[in-house]
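Field reference: sequence -> structure
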Amino acid sequence: MKYLDEYRAPETVKKLVSAIKAITTQPWNIMEVCGGQTHSIIKYGIDQLLPIEINLIHGPGCPVCVTPLAYIDKALAIAAQPEVIFCSFGDMLRVPGSHNDLLYLKAQGADIRIVYSPLDAVSLAQQYPARHIVFFGVGFETTAPTTALAAYQANQLGLKNFSLLICHVRVPPIMKVLLESPKHQVQGFLGAGHVCSIMGTHEYWPICTQYKIPVVITGFEPVDILQGLYLCIKQLEEKRYQVENQYSRVVKEQGNLPAQQLMQKVFKVVDRRWRGLGEIPASGLALTEEYDPWNAEQRFAVTAINTQEPVGCRSGEVLQGLIKPSQCPEFGTRCTPEQPLGATMVSSEGACAAYYRYRRYQHG
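Structure field:
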């Protein structure tokens, strides 16, 4: 509680809001990359405390939301196999596929289990040698090391009844794609603190230099976000374009080197399709040749599944920061957490879910 009190202290919040107002002389558009930051901003009304000149743009930093529809359909096809125990983090179960979701399939009798770590799936493979255990590996660089560790352990243990459906993605490539879009309005970034706790801060310097844009690595509590905004706005006002680390209590410049080394051993960088955003070069991770025997796509022959995105869902525009969730005509009507059109409405880090939970009254 002492930690939370420090980073949610009302007097500190007031001081930071005043400081932001004092340095702001013109409009600025700042994107928070991480969906966890989006939820904090909407939950605590941080955007409503800021001067009218500051526009916060919600970015594509929800790993569940950007998992392409084809991979949900691949997961469904694998999970439907009678010999399979399909393991996933809980927030993937409600993500809609072409026709249903994993929760529906579980209700129909498929053995689908929520796990808290990929290593739980490795343990299941040891407990049930007659079944095949599949873990659905999604997320940014934050969760990729534990998936890599699961693959490494499966290799060390010689587990033949374990495999991974991998859809991990990387943050820097999507930031570049957004900045190269003719529609983009981003002038500064709040970087994803948890991603940088693994990868460090060095990957963002080329972005600052090439695109003349500040990147401030930021945490998730109200004081974190306001401090990050203050640093970002100060750079913009002073025409500086650097990487700054607000989240220094967690993030170090070099990141977590053992985690990075494990990822480099297990994964290779590949092009990856993002839901609502299309194909993005060098934005994904896939198993290396050494670890390809644990590739669930190959084992269950689902590589060829390639599903088209549904018409009517504007989550791609939400993920690019082109519209706010409440600007979608389907928000809160045809699209709700009970009947979602897209993953942004059901993920715990989705922008649409945040607006529905905390600002449903603003629809229309």
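Note: The mean pLDDT is 93.
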